[in-house]
């Protein structure tokens, strides 16, 4: 099987798998289905956020600046999946906060990055990558992480 076929197979597996406890998930295969999902969950009065950078794909160190903003404690996060056409893995995980983090790069360029903090990880797989990296267990401290630049976050107004 080709590498591309393996990646597509993995995307299908992720989309068909049941969500974890407290997670509402949906794989959108078009922009229309993505918007329909968000409207069904939050109504039409929503804000959308993505990472903001002047230049994409600049590999440099960043420093976190003052002015971190909590964007909400209810959100739908849509991750772009690797597939032959646009597929977004959208989900809501209860007890999760989303933040916009102001950054400055080593070259002086400014950016804003989205971070989510999962406050309750008790239902997560104990073998989850985050637990290995942070050396913590499910149900322990919050797990926070930056979102990729191809991720979209929807927050109700």
TrEMBL record:
<dbReference type="Pfam" id="PF03181">
    <property type="entry name" value="BURP"/>
</dbReference>
<dbReference type="InterPro" id="IPR004873">
    <property type="entry name" value="BURP_dom"/>
</dbReference>
<dbReference type="InterPro" id="IPR044816">
    <property type="entry name" value="BURP"/>
</dbReference>
<protein>
    <recommendedName>
        <fullName>BURP domain-containing protein</fullName>
    </recommendedName>
</protein>
<feature type="domain" description="BURP">
    <location>
        <begin position="1"/>
        <end position="157"/>
    </location>
</feature>
């Amino acid at each position: 099987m080709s590498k591309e076929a393996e990646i597509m197979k993995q995307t299908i597996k992720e989309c068909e798998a049941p969500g974890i406890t407290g997670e509402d998930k949906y794989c959108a295969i078009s922009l229309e289905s993505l918007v329909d999902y968000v409207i069904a969950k939050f109504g039409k009065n929503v804000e959308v956020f993505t990472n903001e950078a002047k230049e994409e794909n600049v590999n440099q160190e960043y420093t976190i600046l003052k002015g971190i903003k909590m964007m909400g404690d209810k959100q739908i996060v849509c991750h772009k999946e690797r597939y032959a056409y646009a597929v977004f893995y959208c989900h809501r995980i209860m007890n999760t906060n989303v933040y916009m983090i102001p950054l400055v790069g080593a070259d002086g360029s400014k950016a804003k990055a989205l971070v989510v903090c999962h406050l309750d990880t008790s239902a997560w797989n104990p073998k989850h990558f985050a637990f290995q990296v942070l050396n913590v267990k499910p149900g322990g401290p919050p797990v926070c992480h930056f979102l990729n630049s191809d991720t979209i976050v929807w927050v109700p107004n």
